[in-house]
Write a structure and sequence with these properties.
Layout: H1 2-7, H2 12-20, H3 26-44, E1 47-50, H4 52-67, E2 80-83, H5 110-117, E3 122-126, H6 160-167, E4 173-177, H7 184-190, E5 193-196, E6 217-221, H8 224-234, E7 264-268, H9 278-293, E8 297-301, H10 309-324, H11 343-354, H12 357-370, H13 376-399, E9 402-406, H14 422-426, H15 433-438, E10 442-449, E11 455-461, H16 467-480
Parallel strand pairs: 2-3, 2-4, 7-8, 7-9
Antiparallel strand pairs: 1-3, 4-6, 5-6, 5-10, 9-11, 10-11
Helix pairs in contact: 3-4, 10-12, 10-13
């Protein structure tokens, strides 16, 4: 067991090697994950529920394959956590909302189906901002997840539980969803790798919809290779998702070490200007110097329409949320108000009681933007600006292979410090939302620490289906630096 405890802090490759060498069993890896959760989750609150029966059943199958000398998939036996808005058959899947407090889906999301086929033990479901609406994981109906680096600070959102559980070594990898930065922001605040793939690269079938044209499932890992292996397992075309891209999935982990000589990185000037914390800016500038020393050409890139990104995003995302969340009416499944005079009264009371304040705020904003007389002024105009933001990216990638910016203008902030000011919370997404509006892939990697010892995230962005470039660029930085630290907790 001592070997297994040590391996809890190691990478996918190191854990896989130990499994294949029969130094430990898959069951022991699962044992040690649950032991770690038992020791630390009372402080962090990363998990909404645990799926022990499923995890041990999967581990048993892995151990049988090893005994029989059969070939193992890349992630087989490696403990993984799922964000609690991804459906897994028969398991509690709540989206951290009262309205779905007892919901158990009758089917698996496509990513869950792939994980099960590849014999990945799913340890449990992680906390999030309700229906993925938030940047701090404070909007959950169940609990507030804490940052493992400082329990008084937020882990980022909305996939805060998935970021925190990997940071605290409760699981080796995890899955989150990213609608406007919800994987990259926790990646930045928790000092881990958070990766948002190209829109359509990973099936959204079985992901509880927030904003369907923006949502994307992606991986967290403690190193670039872990994130690359995890994406490889879940990516690919799916006929059940009409927005899924029908293109082969590269072997992301096989070609990480390609070097940076002759490559061009574009620094987005608008995201390095006022509003960026001085500690964050210093660490990003040091990261740029690292790339220069690796032989990379650094060019300045302007994305003039990024100043409209927050307004554009919060019209489009809330409009889609208003439409998507109309299904939660107390009739078919989920929470239903106990006392109602008639059907309309039941609808209203169910939604009033079942949804939290932030979700209701966004539904109202979106309904207003779509309403008669305002559609052209808001929703249509936002779609037009979205096209301009996409054009900014197209022009930028003519000049650079990869773009660079801070993941967030600040490091993790104190729990409760922004809850009463929604606008200051929304501004946390300023660096990340344009990637969702344009559909391009992005990754956050740790690039240093602020004066208080909190991680700083570096964001890299690539063209559509440019995940391989992203992983290579991120890996080149990781290889010559030492920022993938594990907090003491």
């Amino acid at each position: 067991m001592a070997i297994a405890e040590e391996l809890q802090y190691k990478t996918v490759s190191e854990q896989r090697k130990a499994l294949l060498n029969k130094e430990i069993s898959a069951k022991e890896l699962v044992d040690i994950a649950y032991k770690r959760i038992e020791e630390t989750d009372g402080k962090i609150d990363a998990f909404n529920s645990l799926t022990k029966e499923l995890a041990y059943d999967t581990a048993k199958k892995v151990d049988e394959k090893i005994r029989n000398g059969e070939e193992l998939p890349l992630l087989a036996g490696i403990p993984l956590a799922l964000k609690d808005n991804i459906c897994s058959k028969g398991d509690l899947t709540t989206s951290s909302s009262k309205i779905l407090a007892d919901f158990r889906p009758p089917y698996d999301a496509t990513v869950v189906k792939k994980l099960k086929e590849n014999l990945v033990p799913i340890i449990g479901k992680t906390n999030l901002d309700e229906f993925a609406m938030g940047s701090s994981t404070e909007n959950s109906a169940t609990k507030i997840t804490k940052n493992p680096w400082d329990l008084n600070k937020v882990p980022g959102g909305s996939s805060g539980g998935s970021g925190a559980c990997v940071c605290a070594c409760q699981t080796t990898v995890s899955l989150g969803s990213d609608t406007g930065g919800s994987i990259r922001l926790p990646g930045s605040f928790c000092g881990v790798i958070g990766m948002k793939p190209t829109y359509g690269r990973v099936s959204r079938y079985g992901l509880m919809a927030f904003a369907s044209s923006l949502d994307q499932i992606g991986p967290f890992g403690r190193c670039v290779e872990d994130a690359a292996i995890t994406l490889q397992m879940i990516a690919g075309h799916d006929e059940r998702d009409s927005t899924s891209i029908n293109q082969p999935v590269p072997n992301y982990a096989a070609n990480l070490d390609s070097g940076m000589k002759g490559k061009k990185i574009g620094v987005i000037t608008e995201l390095m200007s006022e509003g960026v914390d001085s500690d964050v800016k210093k660490n990003i500038e040091k990261a740029i110097d690292v790339y220069k020393n690796l032989g990379t050409e650094i060019v300045e890139i302007s994305m003039p329409h990024s100043k409209y990104a927050i307004a554009t995003y919060y019209i489009l995302a809330t409009a889609e949320a208003s439409s998507n969340l109309a299904r939660y009416d107390g009739v078919k499944y989920g929470y239903r108000a106990k006392e109602a005079d008639n059907l309309l009264d039941m609808y209203m009371k169910t939604r009033e009681e079942g949804f939290g304040e932030e979700v209701k705020r966004r539904i109202m904003l979106g309904t207003y933007a779509l309403s008669s007389g305002y559609y052209d002024a808001y929703y249509k105009k936002a779609q037009q600006v979205r096209a301009l933001i996409k054009q900014d990216y197209d022009k930028a990638f003519e000049k650079a292979d990869v773009l660079l910016s801070p993941t967030c203008p600040t490091t993790a902030f104190e729990i409760g410090s922004k809850v009463s000011d929604p606008l200051s919370m929304y501004i946390m997404d300023i660096c990340t939302i344009t990637a969702n509006l344009a559909g391009v892939p992005g990754i956050s990697i740790p690039c240093g620490f602020d004066k208080g010892g909190m991680p700083v995230g570096l964001q890299l962005l690539a063209p559509i289906l440019g995940e391989e470039k992203l992983f290579q660029t991120a890996y080149a930085f990781e290889k010559v630096t030492d920022f993938n630290k594990i907090p003491k907790i």
